[in-house]
Amino acid sequence: MAERIEQRLEDRIPELEQLERVGLFTRKEIRAVLRKASALEYKIQRRALRKEDFINYIQYEVNLLELIKKRRARIGYSFKKDEIEYSILHRVHSLFNRATGKWKDDVQLWLSHVAFCKQWNAKHQLSKVFSTMLAIHSNKPALWIMAAKWEMETRLSSESARHLFLRALRFHPDCPKLYQEYFRMELMNAEKQRKEKKEFEQAKMDLGEFNYSEEILNGEMARIVYREASQKIKGVEFQLAVLSIAKLFDFTQDLQKEILESLQATHADDPLTWDYMARRELELGSLQPTEHCSKQKKVSEMAQREERCCAVFDEAVRAVPTEDMWKCYITFCLERYNRKTNSKELKQKRLERTLSVFSKAHESSLLSEALYKQWLQLLLDSNLSEKAVEVAEAASRHFSQSVETWQMRLQVLIQLKRDGVTQCFEEAIKHVKSKGTLPLWTLWVEWSEATNSKEDTEALYQRSIHATTPAQSVTMKEMYLDWTYRNCGYKKVKRLFTSLCENRPFSLDFFRKMIQIEKEQESCKMLHLREYYERALREFGSTNTDLWLDYIKEELSHPHGKPENCGSIHWRAMKMLQGDLVEDFVSKYTLLQTGHL
Question: Residues in domain U3 small nucleolar RNA-associated protein 6 N-terminal (predicted)?
């Protein structure tokens, strides 16, 4: 192994001598490079190879290349690249080849090699890397697309790109993304040839030796790709994606028409088809240029376009009366309403249209829960409070078991300071299953704290603890404890704590809250703190190391604490804690003893 490493280091000598000779590196720096290279070589020649060692070696060589590049720019020297950079580049490629040969499944390693080749313009090497990578990772369409794009955009080879796409489709015959990118590539190729032909004609050059096929120039290859794909991929999303690609090219009107006709014929009942057809009216617009039109005329024209869109949507909801179709219609209306405009008239018209569509969808009973929420927000923002209350009530009737819908209705009533909040809470608790009522109870007690008497709020807290599931009652106990301390004082909260401790389960925060309350008292009693810590440790002593440490700190720092108790607390902790927590506790306790915690 040593002989091989020495040989590899000797191979570096010519490039290092050149670096010193031309003044890019000093002799001291050359020696440092040799020492570092020697250490890195030994790491990658071991029997037990590690990926990190190869990555570190590659990164060192890349950094070296970057340094040479900067120093060349600084002194203005651009010669001897064959003897210096190319030698390092060859070594980096060799390291990448060894690494990817050893760890073939690491896609990120392959992509790093690809990025390196692109950075240093190693086109020939990159072609080899793509070839090897695709042979191993043929199951990843994204890699095929990357390779084909590079062939098309960097090497300007449409034939190679087409060949890669055809190979990829043999492995992935039903991949929509592959067909989309293949379709795009053929249109890009057609556009490139059209530009070339136009430039030749403008230069009045003879096109005899150049063979520009009219079929390719008109996008016939892309049409073939589309027809082949549409037989295998039936979704409307694919058709729309292909259509959006075709619209990027100005010579594809016939192709767009064919895709559109196919879309309408095969997906006439799909909401996405209708959504596209309606939004298309916005783009068609007026044939006249709008640059020199007055602002009023522009607003008028935009209003007409939106009306045409809505006419298509109206037809759509009659033809396809589904929740998804109404969602498309409402989404369009909300998008237009949220667009900025200086015209108050247009803004008001958009608002009225949006509210009207919401109402129609509600009347058809095809409005989703999420859209009810958006409708309510729009009504509140528009100061239509009476309608908001009415809509919130309708939503809670339609989705009577949904916690979010009841929350929404209650928040509207609370925000508008309406009567009947208590009755609405009672109705909500009755309809929603007990497992999901926690958000309603928390909202109820928070509202009660702000509006009702202490007695009513306390009765509500007690009721909530019994009405919620044991797991949810933990949260209510914490809130009850906090509210009692804020409103009724220390003595009352201490009695409440003792009372609540009779019914499990508890949370750690429940005990910590009581400990904090005790510490806030002027005459903080260690006896009480011990009681709270002991209660907490009975519940969480086997799973929480910090609780034990806090107890020890309390004994050490409290004026009435007993440091001699720390030993027994430590012994109990070692007995109760489970698994790796023992080791964690020991390390933290050591830090505490040395004053670092």
Answer: 9-91
Comparing CA positions, the residue from 298, 303, 243 lying closest to residue 272 is 243
DSSP string for 421-456: HHHHHHHHHHHS-GGG-HHHHHHHHHHHHHHS-HHH
pTM of the model: 0.80
C-alpha span between 486 and 479 (Å, rounded)? 11
SS3 category, 247: coil
Spatial CA neighbour of 190 closest among 152, 164, 235, 228: 152
Reference 462, options 433, 503, 491, 515; nearest CA is 503
- Please count the structural domains in the chain: 2
Q: How far apart are CA 384 and CA 395, in angstroms?
A: 16
Q: Is residue 252 part of a domain?
A: no
Strands (DSSP E) contained in 34-91 are none
289 preceded by cis ω (within 30°)? no
Q: Is residue 158 part of a domain?
A: no
What value does the CA radius of gyration of the chain take, rounded to a whole number of Å? 37
- CA–CA dist 557, 567 (Å, integer): 15
Domain-embedded: residue 583: yes
Tokens (6 digits) for 428? 């909500």
pLDDT along the chain (597 residues), means of 10: 81 88 91 93 90 96 94 88 89 96 96 96 94 96 97 92 96 96 96 88 69 83 95 93 95 94 92 94 65 77 93 95 96 94 91 96 94 95 94 94 94 91 93 87 94 93 92 94 94 94 92 94 90 95 94 92 92 92 92 81
Domain containing 55 equals 1-98+111-121
